[in-house]
User: Fold this.
Amino acid sequence: MVKKSKGRQKIEMVKMKNESNLQVTFSKRRSGLFKKASELCTLCGAEVAIVVFSPGRKVFSFGHPNVDSVIDRFINNNPLPPHQHNNMQLRETRRNSIVQDLNNHLTQVLSQLETEKKKYDELKKIREKTKALGNWWEDPVEELALSQLEGFKGNLENLKKVVTVEASRFFQANVPNFYVGSSSNNAAFGIDDGSHINPDMDLFSQRRMMDINAFNYNQNQIHPNHALPPFGNNAYGINEGFVPEYNVNFRPEYNPNQNQIQNQNQVQIQIQNQSFKRENISEYEHHHGYPPQSRSDYY
Amino acid sequence: MTRKKVKLAYISNDSSRKATFKKRKKGLMKKVHELSTLCGITACAIIYSPYDTNPEVWPSNSGVQRVVSEFRTLPEMDQHKKMVDQEGFLKQRIAKATETLRRQRKDSRELEMTEVMFQCLIGNMEMFHLNIVDLNDLGYMIEQYLKDVNRRIEILRNSGTEIGESSSVAVAASEGNIPMPNLVATTAPTTTIYEVGSSSSFAAVANFVNPIDLQQFRHPAAQHVGLNEQPQNLNLNLNQNYNQNQEWFMEMMNHPEQMRYQTEQMGYQFMDDNHHNHIHHQPQEHQHQIHDESSNALDAANSSSIIPVTSSSITNKTWFH
Assistant:
């Protein structure tokens, strides 16, 4: 049976001849083997030691509680596990707790990864649907002609200016003199629309209303950080756990009298978010600073 | 085939735990056997059960003795170099999965921003409620695309195109969705080209740095050492990713004069459009083109109505990351 890919097909149980394939197979299967061993320890409380010499004669080993203790027990033909002392009991209990938290965290990350992959596939479908409209500027850049590229380039530069001006609105407090330029922003808006009609005051008011909606939207994002209880003691969990519950937030009703107050809140929200991001990174670094073999607390 | 995912926790039911142990122990032994056979290597496994004082071993007692002896004769450093316990192994897996998740999120974000960029190009910017993070990412995306377009333009200009072909393609372009007046109006002045060039230089440098980091991370480093090194790579990638997007905008913010100048340019271009329209001799044809654009925009809006929900959801996640 000839198949194009190597997914889900049986292979001969003999030594592989291709050297690079052999190396890749060893790496993948060793990892899977250790994974199965780890699961067995977690589910059934077994003690395991696995020693593997790679094709390059390097040695890989996995053990629970650790390789040396299990090997010692085997060599000495000792039927009793060395857990008779109280200290050993306490250490075992704490290790189990740490392993349980690590397992929970791993399950959570893998679940999020699954969700993110589905999202990526959805976005791909949307892109396919948009491309089907037949707009030439969405073709790969290599397939466009020179004049098309130059026109496209001009439009992209215009769009970049619009994005920059829109972004500067969020920092009006930092660049107050730029607020005067909002009338020119309407001109830019007109150009991008492709129409040459001067926008009237109604259009200007609509844009201001959209900006206010954006403020409300941001305002919703910041509150859950403080309102939600901590997600366990896991530093990762605090960051990851916020995400699923975030979607239940509601948008407060728009009140024109609070326009200025919300503008001020906007600036504060930005500052808080930036500091929050830095804290996230700091926590991330701090966690990974632990050496892997350390017996110290995980938290 | 299991019908549902097994929860990774100690099985409290005694009989269920015993059955699971029996099945999984057998599977584990089988996997050691397959690995040893396929790669022609030396391996052994020792499994102690809570219910039995005698261990299960592979391949045999004497086989394990031989492998263990070989293992123990290695220098101490070599023995522990790639040794992991369950705690260390789980941490490695978490780090690996976290990096994969981060990369997947980045890919999703780029795909989303590409869609938003093309929608904005045909005048649908209002349907997305873009916040500062979205605008920052969108600006970065536009800059990347501009870099590709500029590179392609240089290639075509260097190869040289016949005048006839240019003329015919120009006609084709005018038949497209962007009418000729816009093409004329959007020709960028020299100063703007220079600015875009400088930005592209920065982006090019950033791109040059990133592949090295990814290669370093993907290199099959030593297991023990890898866990020490991976966090640094992860942090470096995170910081650089953050810095790239942030610096794009900060560069613009640090030059408010340029922003004011660009705003004036936009106004000037707008007046230029008016001037061009005044000379135009076929207003009806122009009206027809505008109508075509509106129809196309409406079609795009209908087909993309799902985007706001997706965008909001992704934005929420990106916000906390």
Observations:
- Chain A is about 65% helix and 5% strand.
- The beta strands of chain A are 47-53, 59-64.
- Chain A touches chain B through 154 residues (CB under 8 Å).
- Residues 144-197 of chain A form one domain.
